[in-house]
Amino acid sequence: MHRIFIVLIIIFASISTVNAQFWDEMSNPKVNIRLTHPPGLGLKINKIAFGPSTGNCADQVVSALISDFTNNKIEVIDRENLTSILAEHNFTFSGYVDQSSAAAIGKIIGPSALVFVKVLRCATKQDKLYNNERQHDYKTNTDYTVVAYFSRTRAFLQVSIQTVDLTTGRIFSAKVFDYSPERSNKAYGNYPEFPTDFDVQDIAFQQLVGDVHRMFLPWAENTALYYFDDKQGGLKLAFQALKAGDLDQAFNLSQQNLETCKNTPDIKDKVLAHAYYNMGMSYMIRNDYDKALEYFRESAKLRPGNIVTQAITDCQRAKDLMTAMQKIDEKASFEADKKQAEADNKVKEENASTLTNADIISLSQKKLPNSIIISKINNSKCKFDTSPDALVSLTNAGVSEDVISLMIGKSK
Q1: Which of 66, 88, 212, 346 has its CA 20 to 30 Å from the CA of residue 364?
Q2: What contacts 24+ positions apart, CB below 8 Å, involve 299-305?
Q3: Per-position DSSP letters for 321-375, written without gaps between them
Q4: pLDDT for 29-47, tens place per residue?
C-alpha cells in the first residue's frame, strides 16, 4: 500500500510538471532571436571570379549567382575582363586549376574565390494526370464522384559548383546541388494549361542561389523563444519594453525584476525561475551568450522544462556560430596581414636593389671606374633625380659627365 502511494505521488508530480510546462507554453509570448550563420565554406570573400561554365542553362545559372553576389556587395570580376587580365600575364585556364596555378592567379587578381559552374542537368517535363474526387452536394445531401484533371510541369536542375580559394590556393571538393520542383494546375471537365517551363525552372534557380549564397556569405535565421510576462516581479513591464523595441529598457527592467524576485522572501520558485530566464534572454539578445547561458542554467535549476532547455540549446548554437564566424574573420585577417607583409617585403627588396643618386655618388667617391658604374646602371632598376639642382649636386660630388648623361637617359 505504501509503495502504491509513492507511485501515485510521483505520477501526480509528473502530471503537474507537464501541466505547468504546457501552461507556460500556452500563456507566454515569444520573441524572435536572430542567429547568424558563417559561410559554409569557411571563407571571407569580397571578390569572386567565374571560370568557364559548361552545360545547358549554364549562362542562366551564372547570371543568377552574379546577381545575388552583387546584391550582397561582393565584387564579381567580369569574365571578359578576367580573361584579358590573365592573358596579359600569359596565363589561361580551361576547366581545371591546380594549387600552384591558383596561387599564380591569386597574385594577379588579388584575394578572391574562383568558381567553376558545371550544369549536369537542366530540363523540364510536362505530365497530364487525373484523379477521382469525392464531393458532397449539400442541397441533396448526397456524395458524388468527379474527375479532377491536373497539368503538371516539373523542372530538373543538377549543378556542380567547384571553388578555389585564390588567397591560399586551396581547392574545395566540387559540391553537387540537385533540385526538382514542380507546379500543377487543376481543373474539372478538361485538362488546364500547363504551368510555364520558365516559372518552374526559375524556382530551381532560386533554390540553387539560396544554397550557394550560404556557401559564400553569412546568413541569418530567426528562431522564436519564449519570454515570460508574469505580473508578479514586474516581468510584464520588461516584456512590454522589449515588444516596443526598447532593448536597453527591457535589459534594465529584467535586472531590476531579478533583484526584486531574489530579495522577496515569499516569491515563488516559478517566478524567480522566469526572472532568471528573462535575464538570460536579455543577454542573448545582446549576443552575450556566456552570460545568457549562466542565467538560463540558474533558471533550469529552479524550474526545468522544455522552454529553458530549448533556450539553452539555441543559445549554445548561437555561441558556436559566433565562434565559427570569429575564426573565419581571424583567418581572413591573418591572410590579409600575411599578403600585406609579403607586399611590403617585396617593396623593400625592390627599393634596396634600386639605384639612386646617393648610390652613384657613393660609387664615384669610392673611385670605381666609369665603365663599372655604367654597367651597374644598365643592369639595375634605377630611380634617379635629374632635376637641375640634382645635376649640380652630382657634378660637385665628382660624378663623371658620361655617367650623368646615362642617368638622364634612364630617368626618361
Answers
A1: 346
A2: 299/273, 299/274, 300/273, 302/269, 302/270, 302/272, 302/273, 302/276, 303/269, 303/270, 303/273, 303/274, 305/17, 305/20, 305/21, 305/24
A3: HHHHHHHHHHHHHHHHHHHHHHHHHHHHHHHHTEE-HHHHHHHHHTT--HHHHHH
A4: 888 877 788 888 888 888 9
Structural domain boundaries of the chain? 47-219, 225-322, 354-410
What is the assigned CATH class of domain 47-219? alpha beta
Q: In whole angstroms, give the CA distance from residue 136 to residue 143.
A: 4
Instruction: Name the CATH topology of 225-322.
Output: 1.25.40
* Whether the predicted pLDDT of 19 surpasses 60: no
Note whether 65 and 215 are within 8 A (CB): no
CA–CA separation, 370 and 352 (whole Å): 22
C-alpha grid cell, residue 284: 542573448
Query: How remote is the C-alpha of 133 from its chain's centroid?
Result: 47
Cβ pair 159, 61 in contact under 8 A: yes
Backbone angles phi, psi at 122, to 5 degrees: -150, 105
Neighbouring residues of 92: CB distance < 8 A, sequence distance ≥ 6:
86
- Give this prediction's pTM: 0.63
The CA distances from residue 34 to 73, 308, 311, 315, in Å, are: 21, 18, 13, 11
Contacts of 113 (CB under 8 A, 6+ apart): 43, 45, 47, 48, 49, 163, 164, 165, 166, 216
Burial string for 243-273 (b: 16+ CB within 10 Å, else e) reads eeeeeeebbebbeebbebbeeeeeeeeebbb
- Beta carbons within 8 Å of 187's beta carbon, 6+ residues apart: 148, 149, 151
Tell me the mean pLDDT in the region 151-166.
Answer: 94
Rounded Cα–Cα distance for residues 276 and 303 (Å): 10
Mode of pairing for the β-strands spanning 182-188 and 142-165:
antiparallel
Gyration radius of the chain over CA positions: 36
Contact call for residues 37 and 223 (beta carbons, < 8 A): no
Pairwise CA distance, residues 275 & 272, whole Å: 5
User: How does residue 381 score in pLDDT terms, banded at 50, 70 and 90?
Assistant: confident
- Which grid coordinates are listed for 94? 580551361
Q: What pLDDT is attached to residue 318?
A: 86
